[in-house]
Amino acid sequence: VDRFLEVVSRLYEVVIFTASLQTYADPLIDLLDPKGLCPYRLFRSSCSHWKGLWIKDLENLGRDLRRVILVDNSPSAYLLQPWNALPIKSWFFNMADRELDDLTSILAVMATVEDVPAVLKETVGPSCRERVLQQLRLLGEVEDERDEAEWFKYCPI
Question: Name one GO cellular component term (predicted).
Fold first, then answer.
């Protein structure tokens, strides 16, 4: 985590945006970022709650979305701006996990891109839609093609 934060904080304005409650998340973020490289934090109160899902609406950041990347392990988090999302696998105490190393390299390249959604749509687009669908199926929100069409009329995937 240390190397990841060192690198990305030099390339980006890093905002920790979690669907967790602030009372739970703040102490964990303090442990993960003791140097304060990520001074901005958003919590569940900054998320939208819709049909049982916590959604991170990047419009609320007040930034140019062509330059915003959301790294998240939950497809429901990026329902509103899927083309700004870089999906990441959940971490479960696997010390051999190299996900952050891979992500560091990807983010270094993406820092040079003028239009993040255009690039991510081409590179992770199909997998992004499938991840969102998979989560919606697990939640019982999508059972057939009609349900799928209903969900995606609100979401630009």
Answer: TIM23 mitochondrial import inner membrane translocase complex
16 close to 42: Cβ distance less than 8 angstroms? yes
CATH code where residue 79 lies = 3.40.50.1000
Give bridge partners of residue 55 from the DSSP assignment. 48
**Residue at 105 is within a domain:** yes
The Cα–Cα gap between 144 and 68 comes to 33
Collapsed DSSP state (helix, strand, coil) of residue 49: strand
Rounded to 10 degrees, what is the CA torsion of 120, 123, 127, 131? -20
33-46 pLDDT per residue, tens:
999 999 999 999 99
pTM: 0.77
Q: Are 126 and 141 in contact (CB under 8 A)?
A: no
- 103: in domain: yes
Per residue in 38-60, is it b (16+ CB within 10 Å) or e — as a string? beebbbeebbeeeeebbbbebee
Domain presence at residue 38? no
